[in-house]
Write a structure and sequence with these properties.
Elements lengths: L2 H7 L7 E3 L5 E3 L15 H13 L11 H13 L4 H23 L1
Antiparallel strand pairs: 1-2
Helix pairs in contact: 2-3
Length: 107
């Protein structure tokens, strides 16, 4: 087995790795009781984050930034917005009104 093949076999799909200061890849570990994994988004939102990630490739020197980092940055930017409370309330109203109208039309 060649060095590159052995290197790749050490990784598992779905695991998250970071590069430390020595240039080594280290696996990130997560507490299973940590509720950060419970944050879910709609497909439309996920698609918009993917679009943002793709658009950042050129700005990142050809490297595609980690999807989690892109989503976190967008979330933090939104949370720092002056109208985050009003925007959140409006978004929830829109989602709930869509769900109500779908329920009524299926009855």
């Amino acid at each position: 087995m060649e060095e590159g093949e052995r290197f790749i076999e050490e990784f598992k799909e779905g695991d998250v790795y970071v590069v430390n200061n020595q240039g080594e890849l280290k696996k990130c570990t997560f507490d299973p009781d940590d509720d950060r994994r419970k944050i879910r988004v709609r497909m439309e939102t996920h698609a918009r984050v993917l679009e943002l990630q793709r658009s950042l490739r050129r700005a990142c020197g050809g490297h595609k930034p980690d999807l989690n980092l892109v989503a976190e940055a967008a979330l933090l930017l939104g949370l720092n917005s002056a109208n985050v409370v009003a925007g959140t309330i409006e978004h929830c109203k829109n989602i709930f009104s869509k769900a109500s109208s779908e329920d009524e039309s299926s009855s």
